Amino acid sequence: MDPKNRLNEDEGQVNERIAQVRSRRQKFTDDVVTLAHGAGGKSSAALVDAVFLEGFGGDVLAELGDAGVVGTDELATTGGRIAMSTDSYVVNPISFPGGSIGELAVNGTVNDLAVSGAVPAFLSAAFVLEEGLSVDVLRREVAAMRQAAETAGVRIITGDTKVVPRGAADRLFITTAGIGFVPDGRALGAAQVRRGDRLLLSGAIGDHGMAVMLARGDLAIEAPIASDTRAVNHLVEALLAASPHTRWMRDATRGGLGTVLNELARATGLGVVVEELAVPVHEMTRGACDMLGIDPLYVANEGTFVAVVPPEEADAALAALRSLPGGEEAALVGRLVAEPASAVVLVTALGGTRMVDMLVGDPLPRIC
User: Last residue of a domain, which of 182, 208, 232?
Assistant: First the structure.
């Protein structure tokens, strides 16, 4: 059968083929992951069929090939450029208020593609499982990944699984790679940034890092803080439609907003001025940061990005973000200036200024 025709099969045909594949495999009855599940034999096949194939579904995965083969219709309609990104997720704990490692693994790679100007389309997913991991936990994360992929409008088309001995990993690590298509005429980068451009933040900062930190239970702090993990590709497309001359975008993950803005300043040679009062930070998150002596500017986010837009398009860009779920708290938070060159300056609530430097290390390790 022509691979292109396979892509057009209806859901019933796909499910029928999945059922046929599963019927040829042994029944899966294990409650925990064992080393045998990573050995490539019957146990491996049973795990793949019962957890990953059943959990993710899809006609391409049902082929169980060494690569996911898809048509090139998307490339033909969007332009001639392909974007690819990859990232590994080792968060501890793997489940926390507002999300889990499975959601992060999808949303993180989708977001890396989106802020690069690409329309995300396909993902791969590779799992490193620790011996003894509960199969129910694995199923839960697979389900979370499927839901996140459907919400973002992307397809998981291939993957891999490895099992390591007990103690050689921390329950579950996930690596995702993604492919997206960059429309003709779309170009984002530090070289596009100009003095006078405005900084646009898509939402409140610091929630993800603090949610994970508190979920570890090592601190005597209780606060209803939930991670902001979400796919931002729909927000990005709305922004680019409203501000077609957007200069630059970045996903403010590890290192937070402060680190991202320092990278922008160094790449452009311009100064970045940020208004402290304009940066949205939820009250509970700010309180937790104050108690721990951590600056929210350096706390990781998993559903918040920063963009540089021309001043004449700034209001339209802000309105576009605020009109969509996940962008209600978007704000214009600063501007690009000539001096101080290659540096970030924060205008404080009291009207003073302080330098926002690049941190030497991460105050919250392993949170994304």
Answer: 182
Tell me, yes or no, whether 159 lies in a domain.
Answer: yes
Contact 110, 154 (CB under 8 A): yes
Q: How many residues does the chain have?
A: 368
Domain extent, residue 176, equals 10-182
Structure tokens at 84: 């690819």
Residues of the chain where predicted confidence (pLDDT) is lower than 50:
1-8
Q: What are phi and psi of 339, to 5 degrees?
A: -130, 145
Cβ neighbours of 54 (radius 10 Å): 15
| Domain termination residue (choose one: 143, 162, 182) | 182
Q: How far apart are CA 288 and CA 292, in angstroms?
A: 6
- Say how many domains are in the chain: 2
Q: Rounded distance, CA 297 to CA 305, Å?
A: 13
The per-residue pLDDT for range 89-133, each reduced to its tens digit, is 999 899 999 999 999 999 999 999 999 999 999 999 999 999 999
Q: Is the domain of 225 the same as that of 335?
A: yes
C-alpha pair distances (Å), 108 with each of 4, 86, 305: 29, 9, 11
| CATH number of the domain where residue 81 is located | 3.30.1330.10
Are 328 and 237 in the same domain? yes
- Position 367 in a domain: no
d(CA 58, CA 27): 21
- Quote the pTM value: 0.85
